[in-house]
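[Q] Does anyone have a clean structure-token version of this?
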Amino acid sequence: MTFKIPHSVLVVIFTPMREFLLIERADGMGWQSVTGSLDSLEESPYLAALREVKEETGIDAQGPDHHLLDLNTCHQFEIHPSYLHRYAQGTTHNLEHVFSLQVPERFDIVLNPTEHANWCWQTADKAIELVFSSTNADAIRRINANVLEAKK
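[A] Here you go.
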């Protein structure tokens, strides 16, 4: 069995109108932004972010008018007990690298049905309320504040 690497990415996708894309996990854990583990220790977080966005939503993060940005923020957190079996024995924590992806407008996405059951665009306040991860909520809060500040 190949174990997951305890390094992952979180990619918050949003529009200039401050609409945030959320995807609902197929395993019933709830709503989130794009997340995923690095495939190898040689894969950079940036390349993992590009790959995960494409795999989970069908979006080309390098497409025209798309702006993928490394927020230079990392969170270390304890891996949820229901996911520990995916990691090597003794692994208890994950390091998450946070990115934002601004797209020009909201549009339909293509989900990977093995991972996600639904998707929606939400206001920042509603997105923060819906996501199950505190690091995801914090990232949405920060991005929303930066978009507001940029509009001044």
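[Q] Thanks! Anything notable?
[A] The longest strand covers residues 67-78.
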